[in-house]
């Protein structure tokens, strides 16, 4: 079964995009990367998603995350669609977005990356691409994967939130609890001994008492 699992290295594919031909590893360089796929050009949900992604480009760039989209259809179609996306955002109908869109006309990448949605088909009965989000770390390994069907648009605020969690937890021995937002307290990872946790988190470690008597619910203010 094709697809990508957490920890897998991003395939170093070559593709035509709205910003020229790319080799994926060269495109990523030493940055984090986000690849988000779309079922088809000139479709309503995708247009709203790409409009929002364009508006958030500065936020991703601040986090050192390179963005790239993928949709079935040609570069020419993508460029023409970009005008609609910019107009939807209330801007000049330019052909440019702040990130490239891969042209996956023959669905080769969508198949290789496990992105097809069998429930949504084009007029020829071919499956469309689902709404996948892949986040790659600077080591080019897959850190996060989200898979939505074509009929459900994603929440790009949530995608930024998970990037914040991924980057924090990549560098600190913490995990982020339910509904965490940047600035909230975080959990000390279970593998860290109490003594070590005290040294690593000088702002303090707060343990919640539980009926089991087990001391696993350990909070600390978000480390710098
Ligand atoms: C959309 O982007 O609106 C869409 C695309 C494919 C299936 C359903 C909705």
UniProtKB/TrEMBL annotation:
GO CC list: cytosol; mitochondrion
Keyword Oxidoreductase: yes
Reactions this protein catalyses: 1,2-dihexadecanoyl-sn-glycero-3-phosphocholine + H2O = 1-hexadecanoyl-sn-glycero-3-phosphocholine + hexadecanoate + H(+); a hydroperoxide + 2 glutathione = an alcohol + glutathione disulfide + H2O; 1-hexadecanoyl-sn-glycero-3-phosphocholine + hexadecanoyl-CoA = 1,2-dihexadecanoyl-sn-glycero-3-phosphocholine + CoA; a 1,2-diacyl-sn-glycero-3-phosphocholine + H2O = a 1-acyl-sn-glycero-3-phosphocholine + a fatty acid + H(+)
Protein name in UniProt: Peroxiredoxin-6
GO biological process: cell redox homeostasis
Classification via PANTHER family: MCG48959-RELATED, PEROXIREDOXIN-6
Protein purpose: Thiol-specific peroxidase that catalyzes the reduction of hydrogen peroxide and organic hydroperoxides to water and alcohols, respectively.
EC code(s) of this entry: 1.11.1.27, 2.3.1.23, 3.1.1.4
Active site: 46 (cysteine sulfenic acid (-soh) intermediate)
InterPro entries found in the cross-reference section: AhpC/TSA, Peroxiredoxin_AhpC-typ, Peroxiredoxin_C, PRX_1cys, Thioredoxin-like_sf, Thioredoxin_domain
Keywords per UniProt: Antioxidant, Multifunctional enzyme, Oxidoreductase, Peroxidase, Redox-active center
